[in-house]
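Entry 12.
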Amino acid sequence: MKRAEQETAAEYTRRVLGQGGRARKSLGQNFLIDDDVLERIVREGMPEEDIPFVEIGPGPGGLTRIVAKRTTRLWAIELDRTKIEILQREFAGLPVTFLHADALQVKLADLWGEEKGWLVGNLPYYITNPLLMHFLEQKESLLGMTVMVQKEVAERMIASPGRKEYGILSIALQLSAEARRLFDVPPSAFWPQPKVTSTVLRLDIRPYPGFEVEHQSFFKVVRAAFAQRRKTLHNTLSKGLGIPKEEVVSVLLAAGINGELRAEDLSILDFQKIVRALNSEG
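Predicted 3D structure (tokens):
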């Protein structure tokens, strides 16, 4: 590993991939080779405490070699078995455990028990949403996440009501975490270069202020409302919840919500009002 510390990220990546690894398009692999970006991710996006860390998709290990310096417990989840074998040689003797696994099947409690840790990763574009939702469902095991995603996904994650980007992902994320957009990353920072700009975000897990309704009921209403997002609430809630339109009208009146609005116009507080009104209506 001493040799790796003396190499630039680009040099390190070329050498590691020369051992038999490669960027697999089927897995959405684009590797960061910009030292400034890598250092900035860790400096601005990650806590300094020695807590458990998990990295999703380490690839050749460009970010791994920096994260490994600040923790005594790091797990790296990689689906590409060839890269696992290379990384185990590169990081021999360091406190990094490489797991050949599908990140969508990983249970954080199985890694570090009842502690709370931190997730970091350059999330593959083709499964970004499922990965985010999978780990948000395990927020009891997390203090936060530092993720790099496609810029347009980042826009959806932090969007506020009234914006076209606002949707189920926005609500699910903001309900569980305080999201902070750190910086954008150009295609030139990767090898091979993607066709899109990426964005790094820091997500600090916290309870949403004033959220008091049952989680499953809340998202049942949210999903119904966004199922046909260009239609008004009167129509989409009736179809999505399977109740007569006149009942929806009554519920929205009780909630103080204009039924001619669309789902993207409603805040988390507004959706809570609808859930309460539905419960009152029975």
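Annotation: Residues 268-281 form the longest helix (14 residues). Residues 2-205 form a domain with the Rossmann fold fold (CATH 3.40.50.150).
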